[in-house]
Write a structure and sequence with these properties.
mainly alpha; two-stranded antiparallel ribbon; 8 helices; about 0% strand
């Protein structure tokens, strides 16, 4: 049961799901008409493409899945351990994600499928960055697990089991963040086209810089307390 969630977890988690929702919505509305965050759907389309003999679609879908995997792999190389805590390489990953999104924007503008691949790489990087906090599984680029947890917890609660209200609220906020992000990304795309990717790129850059500043301040506070003690 989550007893207390730091403000940076509440704010950062929702902000990142909002950003991922935007990226996914924009990617879906691009010339590829293909999402980049939900791997399950992409693998299903791979199966359908194989059955139909549409090997071009199969190759492209597998490339998107592979780049998502590579993003998660890179995140695992940078961040050791699966529990969310301050003092790890989250700031660097977020800044790197921002850089990838800017590259994706440029590639999309030049009608290159590489834009889709780089966006998928960025999403895999982000999704693996946050694994668990206080026993709660956190995913910020797709909502299947989040929605499953919400439904299961409500079902157990109706059977008389205790409800972890903080965890349920966290999951609901993540779901709302992703949903509103997708809607906002689609709205911006109708006006700015691929330039709308500037917004999630700025969000992740802001989050990365803010995290680094917060981590440095905490280290200084701990150092001061250690010296004073």
């Amino acid at each position: 049961m989550i007893n207390r969630l730091p403000a940076w977890v509440w704010f950062g988690g929702v902000l990142l799901t909002f950003s991922a929702g935007m990226v996914n919505g924009i990617a879906y509305l691009s010339f590829t008409n293909q999402a980049v965050t939900h791997v399950t759907g992409s693998i299903t389309l791979v199966s359908v493409g194989m059955a139909r003999g549409d090997w071009l679609s199969v190759g492209r879908l597998l490339a998107v899945v592979l780049t998502f995997f590579m993003g998660a792999f890179l995140s695992g190389l940078i961040i050791r351990g699966e529990t969310l805590r301050l003092g790890r390489g989250y700031g660097f990953i977020l800044l790197f994600e921002s850089f990838l999104l800017l590259n994706s924007l440029w590639l999309y503008q030049h009608s290159s499928f590489g834009g889709q691949l780089v966006a998928s790489l960025a999403c895999g990087l982000q999704n693996a960055m946050v694994s668990t906090f206080s026993g709660a599984v956190l995913r910020t680029t797709h909502m299947t697990g989040i929605l499953t947890d919400i439904g299961a917890k409500l079902g157990r609660w109706l059977r008389g089991a205790p409800m972890d209200k903080r965890r349920l609220l966290l999951y609901c906020r993540l779901l709302a963040g992703f949903t509103t992000g997708g809607a906002f990304g689609a709205f911006l795309f109708t006006h700015l086209l691929y330039n709308s990717l500037m917004v999630p790129a700025l969000i992740t850059a802001f989050a990365g810089i803010a995290y680094m500043i917060h981590a440095i301040r905490l280290r200084r506070q701990h150092k001061s307390l250690y010296i004073a003690g």
